[in-house]
Specification:
nucleus, HMG_box_dom, DNA binding, 6 helices, HMG_box_dom_sf, DNA Binding (I), subunit A, 131 residues, DNA-binding
Length: 131
């Protein structure tokens, strides 16, 4: 007998309710971060490659087939050809980290301590004490 079959209907409903509550909480957090202007994580090298190929999709081709073709094309690219996308992704990620750090500092100064992770708060407090 597996776990799911061993649960009563009441237990299944409670689990479903808890999952829904967790999802709603996550959505609220995402919305708040968006409202506060948190920088978005940049695209990966593969996603940049995929974005560059978005106009190559045949209208008769399904999205799934197109994605499989793009994935295979990426896998078969030489490292030299991939490096263009890897360098761009790396540059974008460096900019993102700088913007994110600046945003976190602004959130702490604005009093949004609950938004910023505790290790960042500790680092900022340590930096202030050292000055």
């Amino acid at each position: 007998m597996d776990y799911e079959n061993s649960l009563t209907n009441e237990q299944k409903m409670e689990i479903k309710s808890l999952k829904k509550g967790h999802t709603l909480k996550q959505n609220e957090i995402k919305q708040k971060l968006m409202e506060l202007g948190k920088p978005k994580r940049p695209l990966s090298a593969f996603m940049l490659f995929m974005q560059s190929k978005k106009n190559t999709k045949n209208p008769n081709e399904s999205y799934k087939d197109w994605l499989n073709n793009i994935t295979n094309e990426w896998k078969n690219l030489t490292m030299v050809n991939k490096s263009k996308y890897n360098v761009e992704a790396s540059d974008l990620f460096k900019k993102y980290k700088i913007e994110l750090q600046k945003w976190k500092e602004e959130m702490i100064q604005a009093g949004h301590y609950n938004i910023v992770k505790s290790n960042v708060k500790h680092k900022l407090e340590t930096d202030k004490h050292e000055k």
